[in-house]
Amino acid sequence: MSLRQEIENFHPQNEQEQADKQALLWWLDSGVDIFTRQCTAAHLTASAWVVSPDRKKVLMIYHNIYRSWAWLGGHADGMTDLRAVAEKEVAEECGLTHLNSLCPGIFSHMVAAGCRICADHRLSAFLCFIALHHMISSV
Fold first, then answer.
1. Is there a contact between 46 and 82 (Cβ–Cβ < 8 Å)?
2. Rounded to an integer, what distance in angstroms lies between the CA atom of residue 124 and that of residue 20?
3. What percent of the chain has pLDDT over 90?
4. 125 forms bridges with which residues in the sheet?
5. CA atoms within 13 A on the CB side of 96
6. pLDDT tens digits for range 50-76
């Protein structure tokens, strides 16, 4: 299924998600390459919510730029499969490579102000995974 189809199939839960869905579809149809950071107006990112096998813990990572805890994820950087982007980012950021998808597709998305070092708008897709082993421990 294409990214556009996944976004079209997404069922917004509120007005903000509906507005973000329309914005994402507009950017996808714009002809602008939003899969790379070369588009300074907006570009795609993929984020992952990673939960423990018992679904009682969520994996967070400390974000040095923002000095806060956050979910895992990163820029598409030319990749058009956002699930693969999210999985790559999880592997790079915490070393987990054995994940199962908890949701069949994108479970949320947003259009947000860009980070301090990149585009004006970050177009984010969120995917949810279950870690296949107990690498998520209590802090």
1. yes
2. 9
3. 19
4. 46, 109
5. 27
6. 888 888 888 899 988 879 998 898 889
